Amino acid sequence: MNNNKVLHYYILSDSIGETAQKVAKASFAQFPNVTTVSHKYTFISNHETLQSILEDANEHDGLVFMTIADAELAKFAEKYCIKTGLICYNLIQPFTLEIARRLETEPSAISGAQYELSEDYFDRIRAMEFCLAYDDGKDPKGLREAEIVILGISRTGKTPLSMYLGTLGYKVANLPLIPEKEVTPILYEIDPKKVIGLTNSSAVINKHRESRMKEYGIGTGSKYASKTRVNEELEYAHKIYEELGCPIINVSDRSIEESASIVMEVMNLPQRI
Amino acid sequence: MNNNKVLHYYILSDSIGETAQKVAKASFAQFPNVTTVSHKYTFISNHETLQSILEDANEHDGLVFMTIADAELAKFAEKYCIKTGLICYNLIQPFTLEIARRLETEPSAISGAQYELSEDYFDRIRAMEFCLAYDDGKDPKGLREAEIVILGISRTGKTPLSMYLGTLGYKVANLPLIPEKEVTPILYEIDPKKVIGLTNSSAVINKHRESRMKEYGIGTGSKYASKTRVNEELEYAHKIYEELGCPIINVSDRSIEESASIVMEVMNLPQRI
Predict the structure, then answer these.
(1) Amino acid A1: pLDDT
(2) Is residue B272 part of a domain?
(3) Nearest to B166 among A23, A105, A163 (CB)
(4) A33 lies in which domain range?
(5) Domain end marker among A76, A99, A115
């Protein structure tokens, strides 16, 4: 086994290369011990640039993750790779070819076409601004207009989850639960189907809180970060979740993307972005 | 040309299906007139589930965008497709197979491995919280600690761009420029290399402002949304950009992803997510 090999990989795109980057990341995640060197080239628009990048990739024996919408450029890259043996996949091509065959039509070959500005785009901006305006219970009135309402005690990750869902186009309001502070009555007026309760293991919350206290320059041993306090708060949160009858998501060992995906599944939300 | 055909597509993943979704979106973007029906199945963990999804996809003559890390499951899907002629690509497989060959090792076959929790993950959460704390010039002290400082007049998209960069793990502060309000002296103390000035065509800003005024229930014709005012503000902003010597990004006709990609390129920032 040769785990010390350094693997050069190339992200090539006539747009921003986001799709190719995702595939590269998912592929490399299967090889946690491999050292990779990333080379990223975006907005490629002519043969000369493409040729010189492919030559560089070939010299480094690189893996090329490519999304090129322009058929001429894609063909040029393909020819180069057949000739040299360079490993390169145009990730969208198998699909665009198949769709073109089925529809008896040609792809538009417009690079970055998925990012086009439209009414959806403005809706997305509005969603992101909404999430910011109604973060952390800043204004409980947001609960009425929100599509998703996220509840949780301190350090359960309400804010990052809301922000991420915001970038996906959903209007999210989040509300912190604190035993000493009565929850807004609005929470009991809105549709519980749009409410999600976050929970986590008390050990993880504890760790988060300790680290937050350190950032604030406060040593360990505060009441906020004590296990008794965390358990007390969790108990209080679960009482509220039960009253509302809302679904509960345990975010321990889950990334923001995974938690967001579960929220969308549980709430049966349509894909927007 | 048969543009009215409805195309069913399937996102299949043993993780959250984000990578497959990106590829699907990029592929369909090439066919703006095609009507698609999305079927998404995530966290697939056994043959029975996979079989029934593939059968459904086959009945609908669907296109299958797949990211399955588990080798057994992937093989099962592949066999099914060869037998039935169903169009299905396991997007990460060409790469994982090639990497495995080169490294003489097996992929870990852990689904969703790219989302693993780590110190990077906590850094990312901190970045998102940072962006929220220092949005819209809320606290000019954030300019010092920020990795990216975004300037712009009202409705140039500072907030969504900051939030998106935040989800990518960068600490961003943004500061609105208003002719009547003196900018914080901190702006002139920090490294201008980390400052980005946003600009846009006055027509687009005008449209944004009119729409914002409508949301507020204010009719057209306000000073805020007047062309003279927008031009006056843009002139003021460009004067400051010149003083600072910071790069300027024109965000007109650019999506958030594209603008973010340009920011990262201009500032030569490493990829984090």
Answers:
(1) 47
(2) no
(3) A163
(4) 6-115
(5) A115
By the CB < 8 Å criterion, does A166 face chain B?
yes
Of B87, B115, B143, the last residue of a domain is B115
Task: Please say if the pLDDT value at position B267 is more than 50.
Answer: yes
Q: Is residue B1 part of a domain?
A: no
Asked if residue B35 belongs to a known ligand binding site, the reply is no
This model of the complex carries an ipTM of 0.79
Residues B207 and B251 in one domain: yes
Determine the residue of chain A that is closest to B89 in CA distance: A94
Please indicate, yes or no, if residue B205 is contained in any of the structural domains. Answer: yes
Model confidence band, residue B120 (pLDDT cutoffs 50, 70, 90): confident
Chain A contact for B90 (CB, 8 A cutoff): no
Contacts of B42 in chain A (CB under 8 A): 261, 265
Which segments of chain A have a pLDDT < 70?
1-4, 117
Indicate which CATH number applies to the domain containing A239: 3.40.50
A167 touches chain B (CB under 8 A): yes
Q: Are residues B145 and B258 in the same domain?
A: yes
Q: How many whole angstroms separate alpha carbon A147 and alpha carbon A193?
A: 10
CB pair distance less than 8 Å for A110 and B30? yes
Q: Are residues A129 and A141 in the same domain?
A: yes
Sorted by sequence, the CB contacts under 8 Å of residue B50 that are 6+ apart come out as B12, B44, B73, B76, B77
Task: Say whether both A140 and A73 belong to one domain.
Answer: no
Reported as a single tens digit per residue, the pLDDT across A204-218 is 888 888 888 887 777
What pLDDT score does A213 carry?
A: 84
